[in-house]
Amino acid sequence: MALEITPLRDAVVVELPERLDANNATELDAELHALLLTKPAKVILDFTRTEYVASAGLRVLLRNSRDFRSSGCQVTLVELSPPVQKIIGMAGFTKIFSIYVSKEEALRKMN
Predict the structure, then answer these.
(1) In the chain, what are the domains?
(2) β-strands 98-100, 74-78: how paired?
(3) Nearest to 98 by CA among 43, 29, 58, 48
(4) Is the full-model pTM beyond 0.90?
(5) Does the pLDDT value for residue 59 go beyond 90?
């Protein structure tokens, strides 16, 4: 899958794929875990291209966000389309993640 991972000021932006589902969950999990090993201070998960999130994708996000936070890294979500935002909200992730409209807003609000 090869996620696009780009430094942006003091954060790392991870551009997620069109779909987060069982077809790519294992690969996504491995790539996020590899990023964790680099010990970033801030991670912005960019949903610009993401059109669909299934339960397998939600599990990967939850597990990795817990691991990032345990290492002292802040994680935020940006650029959620209305359908993806609905799924994230129904899953209760709005209580777990900070969600912003843009990368710039996320950078301003992250400590």
Answers:
(1) 4-101 (3.30.750.24)
(2) parallel
(3) 43
(4) yes
(5) yes
